[in-house]
C-alpha cells in the first residue's frame, strides 16, 4: 500500500532586526498565495496551477485509490481515519511514543456483498436506460 504525501510551500517569516533604524536594502518578494481549503484535515491551495486541476494527476490518483493501491487518510484531532477502497476502514490514533492504536470500523468482503445483493435484489443499483437524442 503506497501513501501519497503532498508537500506545500509556506512563507517563512524573517526575524525582526535588532536595531531600531534598520531599513532593508530591498523589500523581499512575497509570492501571492490563495486562501487555503481544508480537506481531510490538511490545508490545500486552490488555483489554476494546483495539482487538483491537472486532469492526468487527478485521473491517476483516482485510479490508484479505486484499484486499492492507495488509501485515503484524513481526520482532525485525536482520531484519524484510513479508508482503503474495497478493503477496510480503520480509525486510529498515533500516540506520543509513535504507537498506533486502531479500531477496525469495517472490512469489505465481495462474496458477502454479492450474497446480500442476491438476497434482496432491491439493493442492486438500478440500470440506467440509454437515451438517444438527435438534433438537426
Supply database-style keywords:
single chain; 136 residues; alpha+beta; 4-stranded antiparallel beta sheet; two-stranded antiparallel ribbon; 23% strand
Brief summary of the model shown:
Pfam families: PRKCSH. The chain is α+β, with helices and mostly antiparallel strands and 136 residues long. Helix content is 16%, strand content 23%.
Walk me through the structure:
- It is flat, with a radius of gyration of 24 Å.
- Strands 3-4-5-6 form a four-stranded antiparallel β-sheet, with no helix packed on it. The chain has a two-stranded antiparallel ribbon with strand order 1-2.
- The chain has a domain at 36-123.
- It is an alpha+beta fold and 136 residues long.
- Helix content is 16%, strand content 23%.
- Residues 4-12 have low confidence and may be disordered.
- The chain has two helices and six strands; from the N terminus they run ββαββββα.
- A hairpin with a 5-residue loop joins strand 3 (72-74) and strand 4 (80-84).
- Probable lectin that binds selectively to improperly folded lumenal proteins. May function in endoplasmic reticulum quality control and endoplasmic reticulum-associated degradation (ERAD) of both non-glycosylated proteins and glycoproteins.
- Residues 15-32 have a biased composition (Acidic residues).
- Pfam families: PRKCSH.
- InterPro entries: Man6P_isomerase_rcpt-bd_dom_sf, OS-9-like, OS9-like_dom.
- This is Endoplasmic reticulum lectin 1.
